[in-house]
Amino acid sequence: MKSFELKYGCNPNQKPSRIYMSDGSDLPIEILNGRPGYINFLDAFNSYQLVKELKEALGMPAAASFKHVSPTSAAIGTPLPEKLKRACFVDDIEGLDLSPIACAYARARGTDRMCSFGDWAALSDKCDVTTAKLLAREVSDGIIAPDYDPEALEILKGKKKGGYNIVKIKADYVPAETEHKEVFGITFEQGRNNYKITSEQLKNIVTKNKNLPEEAERDLIVALITLKYTQSNSVCFAVDGQAIGVGAGQQSRVHCTRLAGSKADTWQLRQSDKVLSLPFLPDIRRPDRDNVIDGYINQNEEDVCAEGVWQKYFTERPEPFTKEEQREYLSHVTGVSLASDAFFPFDDNIERGAKSGVSYIAEPGGSIRDDIVISCADRHGMVMAFTGMRLFHH
Question: Is 0.85 surpassed by the pTM of this model?
């Protein structure tokens, strides 16, 4: 297939629209089902790069959940603890522990379930039946993977009344070294960002504490590779082989850190006994549960514990999750990794990271205030590595 015509571009008024190879060669994909759109393909190709690189860097199957050209999360396929399974609504998935690729997607999808609503899924490895069953009950726009088990493919084809977007990409596809894009009729050209993120970027430890365990090294690599495919400015919190909070596209770096930190906190709090024991009505749909849990934790638009409100969601009125209780719960969290796509210009980012249990940091360094940032990390006993490489993505 040399070209694929799209219904429209980013918006319905942007026609004509298509994807094609500028050198006239065949596209490296097969569309097995559905009719993906412009933004679908932006998510598909960005997300597949991320999971492919994670697999190459860490040697484990990887998955990502993407929305609007940034990951809500990415993860490698390690088994989920029981409380995390419950928080991700996957404790009833038979055979989950036996499928690393399903574990990876369960982690990625379960990290920020509100933002993953209507996501694009990316897998580094063949989509198996377990992963397909997991995806079948979620609201999702499509999936990209290098291959599909026949039974898994049939399961996915049944989504969205037969219209679910399923893309197969050639596992050995290598893009050209130079890439182009047009803005306002003007063509931009640059070399592809082929910078390889490995443990080598974590050798320059600038803090007094230089004890970087293998698990933290893994998590920092997960965070850095996630940032490589996240709209800048961006900051990522990671733990246990997965991104647990991504702050993308903010003009101020501390706003990225606050956004990512609040998502990381929500991920932690979702696993608390108080949240896991919420007495939901049996007919509450999964997306509604996500919204209610977010409201219960973050107390935003609706007080879900209020009289006249709780009856819509619960069999009995739950006790509120007070800010004091949440602070107490989060005060015991440690071992979280934090990465930034560019240097931290002020120590406020470090202070915010400390509130979410950050023990390990990777950032490029190079700020005129590096000494202040290092001093703040030292006060908190953190380990911080300067990678020396910026990871902007636009």
Answer: yes
